[in-house]
Specification:
About 15% of the residues lie in helices and about 40% in strands. It is of the alpha+beta class. The chain has a six-stranded mixed β-sheet. It starts with 9 loop residues before the first strand and ends in an 11-residue tail after the last helix.
Length: about 170
Amino acid sequence: MTDATSTPQTCKAVVFSTAGHRFALPLNAIARIIHRALLQSDRTIEGLFYFENQPLDMIDLGQLLQGTTSAPSHLQNIAQFFVLIQMGQQQGGIAADAPPVLMDLSLDLVHEVPSAYRQTLQGLASHMISLETQQDSQGEMDTIFLLDLQQVVMRLNSVSASPNPSNLMPV
C-alpha cells in the first residue's frame, strides 16, 4: 500500500525574471535558453534577430504587461538572456533580466492569481506559486507566475495584426 500524500507532485520549470516579475514555464515548453551574444541582427531591419539562421519573434513581456505599443527603453541594456519557445512554425525569444533557473515546483502550491492582481498581469498568467523566501525569516514570500503561452501568443498575434507591429523588442 502506498501513501499518496508522502510525495508531492512537482513540475520541472524554468523560472526567469522580467519586467519586475518572476515567471515560470514548464520545461517541456522551452526549446532552449541562450545568451544575447548568440543572436545575430539584421543590418538593414531594426529589431529583426536570428538564432542559428532562423528569424525570432522577440517577446517583450514588459510591453505586453503595460499594454503599450512601445518597448521600454531599459530592456535594451538589461536583456542578456532569452528563453526560446516554439510558436507554431516560428521560434520566439522571451527576454529575461538574469539567467533563468531550473526549479521543481510543487503542484500543491499552485493557486489562482488574486482577482485584484489579474488585470496587472493582462491575462498572461492566471495561476501562481508562492514560496517562502529562504534569505529572510520575516515571513516574506517569493511569487512566481505561471506564464500562459497561449495568451502570450494570442496577444502577440493581436499586436502584430495592427498596422504598426510592436512585438519586436530592441536588443
